Amino acid sequence: MPSTYTYPGVYVEEIPSGVRTIAGVSTSDTAFVGFFKRGPMDTPVRITSFSDFERRFGGLDTRSEASYAIQQYYLNGGQIAWVVRVAQNGTAQSAALALQGGSPPDTVLKLQAASPGLWGKNLQAAVGHIASSTDLFNLVIREVDTVGGRKQIVNTEIHRNLSMKTSSSRYVKDVLAEESSLVTVASVGLGDIPSATGSSGEDVASPTVVGNVNSTAFQAFGDDAGPPATTVSDGSPPDSNALIAGMKTLEKIAPYVFNILCVPAAAGLSDDGATVYAEAEKFCEDKRAFLIVDIPDDVDKSEDMTKWLTDTGDNLRHNNAAVYFPRLEIADALNENRPRNVGASGTMAGVYARTDSTRGVWKAPAGTEAALRGAKIVTKLTDLQNGGLNPLGVNVLRTFPVYGNIGWGARTLNGADQQASEWKYIPVRRLALYIEESLYQGLKWVVFEPNDEPLWAQIRLNVGAFMHNLFRQGAFQGSSSKEAYFVKCDKDTTTQNDINLGIVNILVGFAPLKPAEFVVIKLQQMAGQVEV
Asked: What's the distance, CA 450 to chain centroid?
């Protein structure tokens, strides 16, 4: 808008509409914290498929409960996961290999596995010289692992025309940092290229021989991860301190958010597991996320579950958490598909994601649509056993004819009947968390705006549009918007004293849809003939 009108004529001005769309955040991006075979340590990594997880973190590992949870997550409909790899007390070290060169021979290039862990000992490297050049060399990195009882090459990288000169566009440190997913350069010498490890005249970087090149051409990575020299280790299994510290690294993912948290390894830590889950609940409360708690593997009877509640679960009562019983059995691909006992968190996180995608976050992740894919229920429960656990806030997994294995409960850990909590049901709580996080992210523009009616009107317009969109999708009770939700931001919610303190108060209410947990059919026999 011009500050003054200086000449006769027609002026065109654009008036801001005041509409700032509030976009809904994700609802089922799930964070997994635990030990994995490889990958960045204590760094959240966003993955979008199990294949992506295999590339970045090495896939399934018999020592890793979380790796099986991630597999179940994607089998059951998961889409986005944040993976945090942790080690015990931060002791995991990387394998390394010192390549010799020059005269007299000395270390000219030290390679290191791209991430800590014993997996790095499966790496091998071979160097080939280029006949037409004394300054360039080829480097082959391969990973050899045992698959199906046999040693096989599972990964191969070929890096050509590398140079030890920092001024070169093919400087080895820069090229490997950009192109290699297996190794990094730990140190370089004074410019001499590494000695060739292939036989005379053999180009170890030739595509025709790289798959079956003479194994004597390759040198294996080992424990020399110094200075100082240390023994390569995984640092597994993680302890409670490592899990809690790894969980806190999820602070780094902003502006992304996570909505569900799974820490499968905590179930196997006895008393320390309760400590991890208590910290996880506090963290989820702060991040407006939801925690799925796993039970220990020795809790396999309904009376064991009741005892676990008394010993542990009652101290974990929280609006932002849920627990499932019993544990599950899955086919273990690393053990000839024999059954493996796992916690339900990864499976149910996938069911949450699938339900959110098909029905919405306001639909309970339970019922005949909540099929458990790729998992069997360890303990079969009767209706009476189910009826003893459900009022305690335990979500039971059941097997029914035709429908198979399904989730058959939708209560938070604060959903025990005696709690009489307004956050009794998982979909009600998760919908509230979704609204809170969406408004938190979508109203940041309000900060430092003039605190008066024009601002309040904009807030009512934008928040009202967001809530009305949810109402149209069937997220709330009520046949009209007035019955379903309200948005209030005016002189009644924000007094002059609030204005003086720099506060604007926005009151948002909604009528949640609660699951039909008990379906009652009343049948009556008529005493006489009915007149039509």
From this structure: 39
